[in-house]
């Protein structure tokens, strides 16, 4: 037979009592540990429940179906105070996701630009980028949020004196950024279909171009055809239909503008705060990633006659990404979790809404469990996606 | 900065505290009175800073109506009004702090509601301040009534009854509004005074306090006439300890009874010579009342001596001579058309 550990051939099992057998013991101890953990967990839960019960504190999740009775400042899902707690919490989850997705997108772009700028051969650009990174990275995020919120609410004019960014259409004031709504038109469906078609065409074109290059060594243009495929047909249809565009203008009536949509000051402050803060960490990741690619790669690329931007895109970045992606995942997770600081400046994220729920129902343990479950789901999804991406770009050894 | 406690941490703390309560509670079940005597201090949950109700001065001395409730309890139980340990709590932390046994008593402008009394496992002592929720707006807006607030943005602090009444009021009147919900009081106030919100809403006593203490120019702001809710502010204790509940209930009552009997912090000693049997019972000259509460016979004397009767407490902290300039209004004695009515101490 074969020894499990060394893999060596062992003639025969030594005759010892079974509780002295290494393998049996290993399994036995693992079972004992699992049982211990379960028992401790059960003890905690049971004890808590008994104590809550004896102090007449309500437990359970049945409150989710009751009417919430409080309003939410802004929400993408239709919600009113007459809806249930479950729906209020859902609105909070969506608000958290909106901030996280937009925040991650913008922080990645800004962080990449700053990271590359820090490596710039231009002294001034590199200096400015370092100051940006060092200042924002080394002060507490909460303070920065207070700063941005105070800036937005103190520095902007009242609604009546709103800044006309685009006169009649876009206004900026203490009540936020007000933009017009586009009135839905039948043509929009067609335009979207054409855009999707253009997307397929782009993929096709890019693949054909790659094949062409492999076969002949000649490059085909990529950028402008992509733009053309994506937006060309939709734009043409729109023009032929007589360029229909109907906007609902925001009009000042009473306390606020009516019509159109708003980015609230709370959302703006939260986004600016999260994006600038997280972008500094991403910038450092990007810089580290680029520096990790040896100088020889640049020189080799140049020797092949590749211009700078193309060496960066084709030679350096693909190698740098392998270093950049793993720490990037933690930054995305940080941004998502930091978005819970929203309560400090009044953006109705998940935590803010569950705070209110806990206070009204008194069911703190259930509320915290929901918060943890929601963040865990979001965080695990982000890491899952990033791990998949990381595998995809990992070095394929031939 | 250090005073701020935040969100995630806050909520987690609430949960963790509740979990820890698992163990701590049983030890405490033995009796809050015994625990307080052994500790030599009353652990009292108060507001972080609401001048008139509870706020610390530069030396860290606490003053206010709610603080006086804490002091009165310390005086009647321990004979010394200074034996109080103050726990400043924001709207969200207060109930977890009480449930977990961290504090013996919550005296923090807390509204007595059915839900809190039942599903939060609390017991309320008599109301120390009958209040109602109001709105404050900038004079510039020219708003004269809450009914004109359709479409307004309203600043509000979470974890309060305020947040709920607000939604109810606008729904009942078929009006729209946008809440801006910010956790720390100082930040809500800052947002309102910066002009982010058209109106700020809380208990009308809280509005008076905020206007007096934080507005650059108090005259630039008006408190609208409507009171949209009933906010009976009362001290609270945990359920399940009747002995301690009795002490808190009757000490709070004693201050009102003292006003009814005409006993003040200044004349309390002279009143001991009174022939009025009710006064003699109250001041412990005729024994019995203290024993009923498992306290010394001079329990009520000590409380009144330390903080004065209800009228004195009111006038000193929020009355006409203070920046809050509040009327006795419904908080007058029942004999003067108000709601303050002491259950008989006999
Ligand atoms: N009476 C209401 C409101 C009490 C309340 O928390 N009021 C606010 C605004 S006046 C406050 O005192 N905040 C102080 C803080 O959180 O530090 C209740 O019991 O829910």
Task: Give an account of the 3D structure.
Chain A has helices at 22-54, 85-118, 123-137, 141-155, 186-216, 223-240, 265-291, 295-303, 308-338, 350-361, 364-393; strands at residues 163-166, 170-173, 176-179, 181-182, 247-248, 251-253, 256-258, 261-263. By secondary structure, chain A is of the alpha+beta class. Chain A has a domain at 47-146 and 263-398: Orthogonal Bundle (MetI-like fold), CATH 1.10.3720.10. In chain A, the strands form 3 sheets. Chain A has a 4-stranded antiparallel β-sheet with strand order 1-2-3-8. Chain A has a two-stranded antiparallel ribbon with strand order 4-5. The radius of gyration of chain A is 29 Å and the shape is globular. Chain B is α/β, with parallel strands linked by helices. In chain B, 41% of the residues lie in helices and 16% in strands. Chain B has 14 helices and 14 strands. Chain B has helices at residues 7-29, 32-39, 65-78, 94-99, 114-118, 161-172, 185-194, 204-214, 242-261, 268-271, 277-283, 289-292, 299-307, 310-317, and strands spanning 42-47, 55-56, 62-63, 84-89, 105-106, 122-124, 129-131, 133-138, 152-156, 177-181, 199-203, 221-223, 231-233, 236-238. In chain B, the strands form 5 sheets. A 5-stranded mixed β-sheet of chain B has the order 10-9-11-8-12, with helices on both faces. A 3-stranded parallel β-sheet of chain B has the order 4-1-5. Chain B has a two-stranded antiparallel sheet with strand order 2-3. In chain B, helix 9 (242-261) crosses helix 13 (299-307). The longest helix of chain B is centred in the first third of the chain and has 23 residues, at 7-29. Chains A and B meet through helix 1, helix 4, helix 10 and helix 11 of A and helix 1, helix 4, helix 5, helix 6 and strand 10 of B. The structure holds glutathione.
